[in-house]
Structures are given as structure tokens and as C-alpha cells.
Design goal:
With 160 residues, this protein is mostly helical. 76% of the residues lie in helices and 0% in strands. The longest helix is centred in the middle third of the chain and has 32 residues, at 89-120.
């Protein structure tokens, strides 16, 4: 049986608001945060379902995780493109860090889906290889998540 590491157990429950003159940013950030938290939850559930060999439900959860991450990424890129002149360097660093985190999580979801597809047809070696690649990407994403948390902690006047 293939065992995947649940790497996203650390889910940031704090909702981050960027203290900016742009109200649209402050209104969008909680939604982005919720999408990331829901994506992490769906990803972890997908991994557990793979471990339980419930591949159909695992695929559905992986797709839900990917959708949450993609929606969050899209909203962040919109903020970056539309309001880059209104935010400071620390806020830009925060946004870039979250974008990097999400790009890795999206790649991990893609690898997880490939793993599921291969495990469904009993191609265990290939499925395990894709699963390991997904784990590696999640570990990388968690580094960005930790960096994001540090930026918030080090700049409490900018983030509420």
C-alpha cells in the first residue's frame, strides 16, 4: 500500500488583511485566505483517500483543492496587477510569496492527480513516483507558507 505524507497539516487559521488605502485589497484577502485553507483541507483529504485506495473520491478532492488554489492565485494576481502602485515593498513581498506557494501547491495537485490515475490502473511504481513528487512540492510550498507567516509576524502594523 502506498503511503503519502500529509504535509499540509499546518493550516493557517488567521485571516490576513493588508493595511492599504485600497479597500478592494482588504475585502479580497479574507476570501483568498479561505480558498487557501480550503485547498489545503481538500488536498489533505485527497491524500488520505489515496491512502485508503478510494481513488474516485481522492480525485474529486484533488480537483477541489486545485480549484481553490487556482481561484486564490487568480485573485492575488489581479491584486498585484491592479494595485501594484498602491502597495509597499513588504506587501509586494507577501503577495509574491503567496503566489510562489500557490504555484507549488497547484503543481503538487497535478502530480497527485497523475499519481491517482496511475494507481487506479495498478501502475503502482509510476503512481508512487508521482506521489513522491507531489510530496516534495508540498514541502517546498510549506517553506513559502512559513515565510509568509514570518512576514506577517514581523510586520503587524501592515497586517491585521
Amino acid at each position: 500500500m502506498i503511503v503519502f505524507v500529509l504535509a499540509l497539516l499546518i493550516i493557517s487559521a488567521a485571516v490576513i488583511f493588508i493595511d492599504s488605502s485600497v479597500d478592494n485589497i482588504n475585502k479580497t484577502m479574507p476570501e483568498i485566505s479561505d480558498l487557501i485553507v480550503n485547498g489545503d483541507k481538500d488536498y489533505n483529504e485527497a491524500v488520505q483517500l489515496v491512502n485508503d485506495r478510494d481513488f474516485n473520491n481522492a480525485m474529486a478532492k484533488a480537483e477541489a483543492a486545485g480549484n481553490n488554489y487556482e481561484n486564490s492565485l487568480s485573485k492575488l494576481q489581479d491584486i498585484k496587477n491592479e494595485f501594484s502602485d498602491d502597495i509597499n515593498d513588504i506587501q509586494k513581498e507577501y503577495i509574491d510569496t503567496v503566489i510562489n506557494e500557490l504555484n507549488l501547491k497547484i503543481q503538487a495537485v497535478d502530480k497527485l492527480k497523475l499519481s491517482i490515475e496511475n494507481l487506479q490502473v495498478y501502475s503502482n511504481y509510476t503512481g508512487s513516483t508521482y506521489g513522491s513528487e507531489a510530496n516534495d512540492l508540498i514541502y517546498e510550498a510549506v517553506q513559502y507558507q512559513n515565510e509568509r507567516d514570518s512576514i506577517v509576524k514581523d510586520n503587524p502594523n501592515l497586517f491585521k
